[in-house]
Inverse folding.
């Protein structure tokens, strides 16, 4: 594997992808969305339980590469307990960092996204890393 590909599958990505396999869509999800990446076959379904307080539970079902699984796992951690507007802002910042190279203003998000940044060198893989963002944004649409 080249150094660039090694960086793409950083240990943090691989660890998150393994942990992601245990996550499920909540039974009582009030909001759901499914997205599919036709280029590689990755699929992500996001389910959220929303209340007046915000996102009380967030889970996903994903089938795909380590990048899509790891990104879904990271989003679950980042968005749980937030209100919907905060969640939307974070998914936009996540996508902007990977799709456009815009560094996140939030230092915690910047640190969490650091292992994903090498994906920008592989444009065909950016969609894998942002598929969970797309599903989350669809699930949280008003």
């Amino acid at each position: 594997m080249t150094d660039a590909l090694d960086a793409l599958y950083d240990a943090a990505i691989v660890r998150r992808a393994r942990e992601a396999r245990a996550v499920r869509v909540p039974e009582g999800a009030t909001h759901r969305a499914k997205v599919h990446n036709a280029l590689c076959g990755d699929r992500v379904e996001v389910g959220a339980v929303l209340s007046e307080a915000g996102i009380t539970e967030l889970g996903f079902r994903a089938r795909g590469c380590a990048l899509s699984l790891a990104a879904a796992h990271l989003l679950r951690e980042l968005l749980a307990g937030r209100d919907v507007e905060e969640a939307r802002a974070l998914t936009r910042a996540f996508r902007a960092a990977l799709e456009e190279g815009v560094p996140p203003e939030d230092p915690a998000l910047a640190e969490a996204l650091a292992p994903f940044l090498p994906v920008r060198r592989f444009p065909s893989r950016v969609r894998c890393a942002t598929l969970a963002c797309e599903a989350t944004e669809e699930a949280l649409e008003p």
Observations:
- The helical segments are 3-8, 11-20, 66-79, 84-100, 107-113, 123-139.
